[in-house]
Amino acid sequence: MDPLVAAKYRQRLVRQSEAIRKTDDDLSKSERTRGEILCAAARLFRHEGFYATTMRDIAQETGLEAGSIYYHFGSKDQILSEVLDIGVRELYEKVSEIVRSAKINNKDFRKTFAILIETHLTFLLTDSDFTSANIRNYPMLSDEARAPHRELRGSYAGVWSSFLKDAKRAGHLRSDISVSAMRQFILSAMNWTVEWYDVDRYPVHLLAERMSKLILDGMCTRHRANTIGQMTSAPTSVEAPAAIGKAAHTRAEILRAAARALRDNGYKATTLRQIAAEADMKAGSVYYHFKSKNEIVDEVLNAGLTDLLSGVSAAVEQYHAPYDHHARIATAIWTHLYFLFRASEFTSANIRSYGMLPNHFRERHRKIRHAYGRLWDRILREAQKDDAVRSDIRIVPLRQVMLGALNWTVEWFDPNKAGKEGYLSLSDFSDMLIKLLLEGICDRENATDAKQTAVQ
After folding, report:
1. Are 301 and 349 in contact, with CB atoms under 8 Å apart?
2. Backbone angles phi, psi at 442, to 5 degrees
3. Pick from 225, 216, 228: which is nearest to 443 by CA?
4. Same-domain pairing of 200 and 262
5. Whole-number pLDDT of residue 168
6. Domain that holds residue 261
7. Predicted pLDDT of residue 442
8. Tens of pLDDT, residues 390-435
9. Which terminus of the chain, N or C, has less C-beta within 10 A?
């Protein structure tokens, strides 16, 4: 390891160890070891995933004998529970203090918002493996494992909601979208950064600055984006060729079962036995159709990306120059969400499992992911060239933040609850996200009118 990287790594470990230790310097050896175990577990859960990490892995990462870890923790579940709690508690306390201070001192809304964004991103990307481990693992946990942490996570969401409600009452935020929807949108955009942001290339404060401005004001140049021409009917699904023969049909069923297992459990925790059980067949029978789990995963991931690229490409090809850019962007967003939630179980499997894939898997699919990124970059650059997207926004970070906000929705939006009180249909949900991405969360029109009135 490079000496500078190693030094930074050790510094981060010290910060994280201090975060879970008592303020008293006279800690016992047992307490220090316990803290080191939690730090090691947080790193492994962050990068490998909870289900794929064993107690032996944690012991080895800590430098302990495998059996020694049980002197400090009864189970891996107990370690996870403490890691999850630390990951949110520190962030909650810090954000609460920022909001409390801003309210007492009547601080500027936009400045406070920017500080909150940078604080969340700093914990997530650089300062805390605990926070990253929480964000990356919580969605795949069972209801039983989530239960002890719902109250604290709800409290953190509540701090954001309180801050946004006050801002809405003060006239800073738009009135046509609920505070809870805005909060989910903001946290989604930030949380997905763990999957793509390279902290070694760009400082977090730069990301925070750009993200804050985009969330507040949106990407379009006007107060309201014209999306009337957007597609309102469901996109044409990308249908795989019909399986001919029993073997081909079984093969297709295995792939669909694998997609569901990957979507729910992630790559490393998904086994051939689980895939076989999901496909309602014996584990050994899978080998008649595929040589290995990796071969199955490879096909699932490729299908998910191919479906998404083909679907969004077909949707935007309906537009011809001179483009109705806002409607074109809205249609691309709508189609992306449709494939995530309706058209392709392979797409949602790809999105949810990508972050913990081995590098060799990522490399094999990098070409098609880049092709999808280039499609969006072209759409956005053409809009920016025609003054439909603000000129002060860099296209690649815009696309990454935008797709991140969309992709994280698989962790919290459930289209099957449409019709129940307080829940949106996929169509209404998509329309809401389109407004937020194009126009931002701020009431820009009234804010501008107020400034003009003050000048007069």
Report:
1. yes
2. -80, 150
3. 216
4. no
5. 96
6. 246-391
7. 94
8. 999 999 989 999 999 999 998 888 888 888 877 889 999 999 999 9
9. C
Do 179 and 289 share a domain, yes or no?
Answer: no
Confidence band (pLDDT; 50, 70, 90) for 47?
confident
- CA atoms of 442 and 435, how far apart (whole Å): 11
Side-chain-side CA neighbours of 344 within 13 Å: the count stands at 31
Q: Is 294 part of a structural domain of the chain?
A: yes
For residue 389, the cross-strand partners are 220
User: pLDDT digit string (tens) for 89-106?
Assistant: 999 999 999 999 999 999
Distance of alpha carbon 313 from alpha carbon 433, whole angstroms: 20
Same domain, 84 and 36: yes
| Contact (Cβ atoms closer than 8 angstroms) between residue 133 and residue 70 | no
Tell me the residue length of the chain.
456
Backbone phi, then psi, for 389, in 5-degree steps? -120, 140
Statement: residue 24 has pLDDT above 80: no
Domain presence at residue 33? yes
Give the pTM: 0.83
Cβ distance 398 to 219 under 8 Å?
yes
Contact call for residues 376 and 332 (beta carbons, < 8 A): yes
d(CA 25, CA 397): 43
CA-to-CA distance for 85 and 149, rounded, in angstroms? 7
Q: CA 316, CA 304: separation in Å to the nearest integer?
A: 19
| CA–CA distance, 443 with 203 (Å, rounded to integer) | 29
| Total domain count, the chain | 2
Q: How confident is the model at residue 1 (pLDDT cuts 50, 70, 90)?
A: very low
pLDDT at 208: 94
Does the residue 5 lie in any domain? Answer: no
Q: At 172, which CATH number?
A: 1.10.357.10
Helix (H) or strand (E) holding 276: helix 272-278
User: Do 31 and 107 reside in the same domain of the chain?
Assistant: yes
User: 426 CB contacts (<8 Å, ≥6 apart)?
Assistant: 337, 338, 341, 342, 415, 418
Distance CA 447, CA 225 (A): 17
The DSSP secondary structure of 378-410, one letter per residue, reads HHHHHHHHTTSB-TTS-HHHHHHHHHHHHHGGG
Quick one: what percent of the chain has pLDDT higher than 90? 58
